[in-house]
Design a protein that fits this description.
alpha+beta, about 300 residues
Length: about 300
């Protein structure tokens, strides 16, 4: 019961230092929030690009005739089941010659008169979507080989397998570059935020070293001395997280239409930045308290020794 009221008294007793601490933490969390927002939207962009990764299996022509068409349908059903049975495959769509023709006319209406029921060179195909985690060049090569081996051996129906290797290679390289850059920048921002917040809280603890000395003198344990300061760090962290989240929300609203394409989950950011603020506040308070719990007057002693 002692710690929480004492933490509140400490916050209001040292209004200037509390304001400075919350201001610095809010700015640090605001910058950290921008980093999180950019990271989140980059991940969504990468996921969107990966969802478009597909393998196309173009099938060989079958001669016309009713008996061949019956065989054609039976073989296509078998092909679909064989492809779907591959573990790395998420889903399979069959595109008939007629469907391919309709799609071609929609995409290229200026050439629609060149093709028709009597002249349709477009092959039937399967569009295969790999399962999540199997959308890199390495796995697409493996899936393509499995499809080639399975279908050629079973039915001899594969004309060509394509998945845009050059584009996938570029996508893989972009993902690796973005991931490495994101980790490095995230580490630097986190380190800088903790350093700035810890030093700001340290000033607050330094200003109250006499209070720590008196409590130690009357026999208070380190945990009893620490708890109010740690709670202050938590409270400052929550307030700073809410301020930083509000700043991000206002900033996106000011940007208007341009920011409309940015994904910003408000509730998650308010809760997330508040929790990160608590962690930063706790860690900063703990770092600042360590040496003053051993000797509240250590700075003065060091100055005299110098």
């Amino acid at each position: 019961m002692y710690s929480f009221p004492e933490a509140l008294r400490g916050l209001f007793r040292n209004k200037l230092m509390t304001t400075v601490s919350i201001g610095v933490m809010s700015l640090s969390l605001f910058i950290f929030g921008i980093f999180m927002l950019v990271t989140l939207n980059l991940l969504l962009l990468i996921n969107f690009a990966q969802q478009r990764v597909q393998i196309e299996v173009f099938l060989k022509e079958i001669p016309a005739g009713e008996e061949y068409q019956t065989l054609y349908q039976a073989r296509n059903d078998t092909l679909g089941m064989l492809i779907q049975s591959i573990a790395e495959v998420d889903s399979v769509n069959f595109i008939s010659k007629e469907m391919a023709l309709e799609q071609f006319k929609e995409d290229y209406p200026q050439f629609s008169d060149l093709l028709g029921p009597n002249f349709n060179p477009l092959p039937a195909s399967y569009v295969i979507y790999p399962a999540p985690g199997f959308r890199t060049t390495k796995y697409l090569d493996q899936i393509s080989r499995k499809i080639q081996d399975t279908l050629d051996v079973s039915l001899g129906r594969v004309e060509e397998i394509s998945y845009g290797k050059a584009w996938i290679d570029k996508l893989d390289q972009w993902i690796k570059t973005i991931t490495i850059a994101d980790l490095v920048i995230g580490f630097i921002i986190t380190l800088a935020s903790v350093f700035v917040i810890a030093n700001t809280i340290k000033l607050n603890v330094f200003a109250r070293r006499e209070q720590i000395a008196i409590m130690k003198l009357v026999g208070a344990s380190d945990s009893l001395v620490s708890r109010p300061f740690l709670l202050e760090g938590c409270i400052q962290g929550v307030v700073s997280g809410l301020i930083a989240s509000t700043g991000l929300l206002i900033g996106l609203n000011v940007l208007g239409n341009w920011a409309g394409s940015i994904y910003f989950p408000v509730t998650i950011f308010f809760i997330g930045l508040s929790l990160i603020g608590i962690l930063f506040g706790l860690f900063g308070s703990w770092l600042s308290l360590r040496k003053y719990l051993v000797d509240p007057w250590i700075d003065e002693e060091n100055k005299k020794g110098a």
